[in-house]
Amino acid sequence: MYRKIVKKMAKWKNSPYRKPLVLQGARQIGKTFAANEFGRLEYDNTVYFNFEKDENLKNLFTELYPAALIPKLEYFKKTKIAPKHTLIIFDEIQACPAAIASLKYFFEEANQYHVITLGSLLGVAANREEFSFPVGKVDFMTMGPMDFEEYLLARGDNFLIERIFNSYQKFSPMEFHEQALQIYKEYLLVGGMPEVVRIFLETKNFELVREKQTDIIQGYFNDMSKYNRQTEIPKTRLLYKNMNICLSKENKKFMYKCIKNNARSSEYENAVQWLSMAGIACQVHRLEQIKLPLEAYKSLSDFKFYMNDVGLCSGSMNILPQDVFGEDPAFADFKGGLTENYICNALENNGHKLFYWTSGNQAEVDFVTRIEDDIIPIETKSNKNTRSRSLGEYAKRYSPKYAIRFSQKNFGFENGIKSIPLYAAYVL
CA 405 from chain center: how many Å? Predict the structure, then answer.
């Protein structure tokens, strides 16, 4: 399955300012596949080391200097590691603090060696463990699950990608709009976890999809005992289990009472931090003022909380195909939250830092982000009914250059609002 991050890795390889690369992201999103595929395409050979699967690897890092390490790694793999021609991959590097520390010396003393490190819980480990992270000595990339464009590529729908892009550039209607909407609804159930996508494309069986999603979620629950204080483990699991309940509310703001009655922020703030650093949940904070830089004006106490993959969100709430493909009004409230989760995933994968805005109880804009030089409000609608006073209220106060509305309507641009179909969120 093609992953777009391989193109970014190629730019990293050819950069004159290249440093060892840290590829971050949650478990099961395809980091290992992408790194190995990049090695296959761009290098003569790839040497792969996994610190969780092979405990003996840690014994090689008694010395951190590449001059001593490279011969040990060559002997371990019985293969030659050639500068510029061999890609070195360190997987699950958070399990070996000494390997993390060695990246500093790869940059300073042996940058002719090309090193990519992968870590599914790296942020959590760095926060909990007593080791020095080589700040300023590494490059970072963050990877997410497959977005809708990658899903279309996996389906072989390249022609649809071309037509979506052409319509986006002209903001003219896309001729295969209804077909694309049906595939989008399919994606809401399947999501972008590569193994889940593979199972669905091979079988078209939503029950098998749900089984694999349940396995991944259980794997995340198991991970919550790693690099975590013993007292925090049950809190983190309870938070992850119940975090989607707030998506069914009219106001999607996360409230601690969704976890359990009388829950307090001070009791669960470490759990919120753990899920965010592990990459399996995303916090979107409320903006107190619309000023730059947006990060300086966010509320630390008010935020929305979304899963890292819309398919896992559907799986965790046992959403069925008839819920998504049908028009049952009983599903309407959570359908809006599920759609927001999808948009959050799509925009985060494209590097947008997201916030939201409210005006008391009068108006709420689902997302606000910076696009080039402009602060842009973004509204999300789960269907074709796009009536809302929130964008109007925001525009009246802040006069944005334009606004964006995602919905089931086709492309269009009128009254200062760019209408983008939900399936095309990845183009933004």
Answer: 21
Tokens matching residue 221: 């629950």
Give me 404's structure tokens: 């964006």
| pLDDT at residue number 129 | 58
Q: Compute the half-sphere exposure of residue 349: CA atoms within 13 Å on the CB side of its CA.
A: 28
Distance CA 313, CA 126 (A): 27
Cα gap 245→241, rounded to integer Å: 9
Residue 399 buriedness (CB in 10 A; 0-12 / 13-18 / 19+): exposed
Q: In 156-257, which ranges are continuous DSSP H helix?
A: 158-170, 177-190, 194-203, 206-223, 233-242
Dig out the tokens for 389 from the structure: 């006073």
The rounded distance, in Å, linking the Cα atoms of 121 and 299 is 26
CB atoms within 10 A of CB 17: 7
The SS3 call for residue 22 is strand
Other beta carbons within 10 angstroms of residue 120's beta carbon come to 27
Which tens digit of pLDDT belongs to each residue from 142-190? 999 999 999 999 999 999 999 999 999 999 999 999 999 999 999 999 9
